[in-house]
Amino acid sequence: MSQIESLKDEILPRIIELRHQFHQNPELSNQEFQTTKKIKQILTGWGITIVPTTWIQVY
Predict the structure, then answer these.
(1) Which residues, in sequence order, are CB contacts of 27 under 8 Å at separation 6+?
(2) How many other C-beta atoms lie within 10 A of the C-beta of residue 12?
(3) Do residues 27 and 35 lie in contact, with contact meaning Cβ atoms separated by under 8 Å?
(4) What pTM, to 2 d.p., does this model score?
(5) How many other C-beta atoms lie within 10 A of the C-beta of residue 33?
(6) Contact at 8 Å (CB) between 37 and 27?
(7) Alpha carbon distance 23, 43 (integer Å)
(8) Cβ–Cβ under 8 Å, residues 50 and 40
(9) pLDDT at 1 over 70
(10) Average pLDDT of span 20-39
(11) SS (H, E, C) 1-59
(12) Cα-based torsion angle of the residue sequence 3, 14, 28, 48 in order, rounded to the nearest 10 degrees
């Protein structure tokens, strides 16, 4: 089994679980504060660096 397949088998169940949690706790568009917080925690836990960005709404 390749390293990628092994990693997929390891994290796919967790990703599916997270998707279910997000769908059970929806947030309004452009107000996904708890979802964003959770995703940042997960990615940081996986060793992925979060790069801060600024979002400006233009009408």
Answers:
(1) 33, 34, 35
(2) 10
(3) yes
(4) 0.68
(5) 10
(6) no
(7) 19
(8) yes
(9) no
(10) 92
(11) CCHHHHHHHHHHHHHHHHHHHHHHCCCCCCCCHHHHHHHHHHHHHCCCCCCCCCCCCCC
(12) -40
